[in-house]
Amino acid sequence: MGAVKKLAVIFVGLMLLCACSVKRHLARVQENVVEMYEETRGWEKLPLRSITWNQAISMLSKNNMQILEAESSIHQAERDSLSVYTEMIPGLSYYGYITRALSELSAPVNSEEMSSSINVTFSVPALTRVPYRVYSAKVRTIAAMKAKEGRYREAVSRLYKLVREREIEERRRELMSNAPKDAEPAYAKTEIERVDADQQYWRDVARILGRRDARWKILPDSMPHIKWSEYEKRLDRLSELVVCQYAMRLEQARMAQYGVALQYLPTINTSIYSPSLFSSSGGIYQGAFLDMDDTKLNLSISYSVDTTLYNWDTYKTSKEHYEREKIKVADELMDHRARMQKLRQSMSEYHNWRSYMMKHIAYLSNFAPSGAEEFITRSSSIFGMRKELLDQEKNSVEAEAAVVLEYGMPDELGK
């Protein structure tokens, strides 16, 4: 009973120690969080740093959180693919034993009370499932790679939209600084909202770039120019990335059926049993090193009859899911085509309208007014049209970002 009491005291002591350890560790973590918060500076205190578009893309590729998570998914899928083969590598394990009465726990340990062994374990996956596992693992790897490419496109598209809208807004501010008197109230309202808009811009850009140590200014002149004519001729067909993403959805749904169908095949299991590589008990060595006479191959074939129809019901459910997925993809493709047609129409109307407005502004600018009143009227008209041009250009950025998301930046069109 004395030994039992000792064990109980030791156990309780360890539990109390663990509880205290957790509290101390959490306290240190909380201190770190408080320190991080105190060191965090407001956006107005961060340095303003100008970078080119290519530098921003390089920064985005390395630090964007969504891209990093997608890259982690690729590594996991690659490890899963490799595990199909690594499971066949023999395992090596060590076991150590000691047997003693509770009343003798305080006595010194001698070699006669100790036993140990080293074993090798060979395991071969079910042969009927190896091809399916290999194929499905490769499909998941490709799907993860395409998902990362899609995340990259999304980040580039959002960044392009932010920078273009920012550049248009700066031109709008410059225009409003020379606004006629009747436009001053609108200018004053814009100035009141400017600080909040600036901080929101810094936050959005920093989140995309994955760097929050500065106010990043991406130089607009360094950005690739979007030529609508180069994208318009591509709107009738899907990009390779979008095609692959839809194909992966269908293929993964189809493979789910095969995973269930394999349950109707007999299971072939293979294993190799060997004696211990090393065995020691009471100081006496015993063991063998994979002697052929002591090594045995076990091959078994089993087959389970689906008497409860569980596998059959699961197979029908997966088949119905595949059929529904095909309908969903067809429906999404129809919506996608309609969006592309609407995009083409709206951009065609915008460019025609913009061409007319530019010509009209040029005409009014070259027209000599007959008096001061006509000069004021003409200046007000030109100002209104320039402001409307900027407002509509800002709206068109949404379409430009959409085609960047679909087909990539101009340097990707030839790939």
The overall pLDDT average reads 81
User: Total strand count, please?
Assistant: 8
Query: Runs with pLDDT <50, length 5+?
Result: none
Question: Approximately what portion of the residues adopt beta-strand conformation?
Answer: 5-15%
- Separation of the first and last Cα atoms: 79 Å
Number of helices: 9
The amount of helix comes to 55-70%
Order of helices and strands: HEHHEEHHEHHEEEEHH
Instruction: Give the C-alpha Rg.
Output: 35 Å
- Outline the biggest β-sheet: 6 strands, antiparallel
Class per helix and strand makeup: alpha+beta
Shape: elongated
SSE topology:
Layout: H1 2-39, E1 48-51, H2 53-63, H3 65-86, E2 91-98, E3 114-124, H4 130-177, H5 184-209, E4 215-218, H6 228-232, H7 240-261, E5 267-273, E6 278-281, E7 284-286, E8 296-302, H8 310-366, H9 372-407
Parallel strand pairs: 1-4
Antiparallel strand pairs: 2-3, 3-5, 3-6, 5-8, 6-7
Can you characterise this structure?
The structure is a single chain. The protein has 415 residues and is α+β, with helices and mostly antiparallel strands. 64% of the residues lie in helices and 12% in strands. The strands form 2 sheets. Strands 2, 3, 5, 6, 7 and 8 form a 6-stranded antiparallel sheet that branches. The protein has a two-stranded parallel sheet with strand order 1-4. Helix 3 (65-86) runs antiparallel to helix 4 and helix 4 (130-177) runs antiparallel to helix 9.
